[in-house]
Automatic annotation (TrEMBL):
InterPro entries: GDSL, GDSL_Est/Lipase, SGNH_plant_lipase-like. The keyword Signal applies. GO terms for molecular function: hydrolase activity, acting on ester bonds. Keywords: Hydrolase, Lipid degradation, Lipid metabolism, Signal. The keyword Signal applies. This is GDSL lipase/esterase. It comes from the Eukaryota. Residues 1-28 form the signal peptide. One of its GO terms (biological process) is lipid catabolic process.
Amino acid sequence: MSTFLLTWIFMSAALCVTLILMPQQTNAARAFFVFGDSLVDSGNNNYLVTTARADSPPYGIDYPTGRPTGRFSNGLNLPDIISEQIGSEPTLPILSPELTGEKLLIGANFASAGIGILNDTGVQFLNILRIGRQFELFQEYQERVSEIIGSDKTQQLVNGALVLMTLGGNDFVNNYFFPISSRRRQSSLGEFSQLLISEYKKILTRLYELGARRVMVTGTGPLGCVPAELASSGSVNGECAPEAQQAAAIFNPLLVQMLQGLNREIGSDVFIGANAFNTNADFINNPQRFGFVTSKVACCGQGAYNGQGVCTPLSTLCPDRNAYAFWDPFHPTEKATRLIVQQIMTGSVEYMNPMNLSTIMALDSRI
């Protein structure tokens, strides 16, 4: 056998060993899927005929491009920062024409501003992706991915993915407390909360059936403390609106109980509760501790607390977004969102139950 042939065989064998031992780039970061409302919508509503939009300035003023993207933020939103923390690229909106080929393997964002747990939540926003439609798109997504990597690997990708679900706030703000709501006439706050939890359980069960095995579920924040509620309740000294606060106080413990029950039924910690009330309350109650000037007045808006109407090019705009906990009447600034993600990543059971995201990532890396 010639020296050339021996050398070629040796080099080929060495290359094969190197490729086997080399970490595969496609498996380096797990897929990430996002479902829910405007707190996590990264631009799906840009492609819909709806009034729930964030596609005009000054939205996106602090985004890397300096332009609006459909995120209800001055910059990055919750999914963006979670992706950043887990070492993944940001997920693209499921309706984006850019979401093709290998980008599909990163995951997808199915969220749509204005939706809730109930189908009649957000009817005033016209055409939005209600949660049932988000799940239909998730099924279509899996079919598209199967065409690229096959059905078995698609199932592995979905089963191994991290999932974020954010629902509930709109069911109170844009349904039960909405001025012309029939829900409020039909049931008490407690009864309505029980209905939401019952329907939410069905939603999460369906998500499990579609393959999700690690799902972070956020509760509602301090609903009565957002600038919109301060303005609408006529708060004089910035006191949080009591009825909206009561809604969160009823809903969130019921959500925790439901998630724990679901995990017992499944026999695994599939659903992780993220206590959005506590993560937000920290900087709302003590803004100066976190470097904010105010947690009452929105950076962008008009009227009392900048909490009336919506953020538009004609709105009052603060010069320093890092000084404000709230960007617009309902949504936190990027700086505040980073504080929330910090607790999602490393927070105690007071914030993440039964474990935080760092623990999840460490556990799942061993599987």
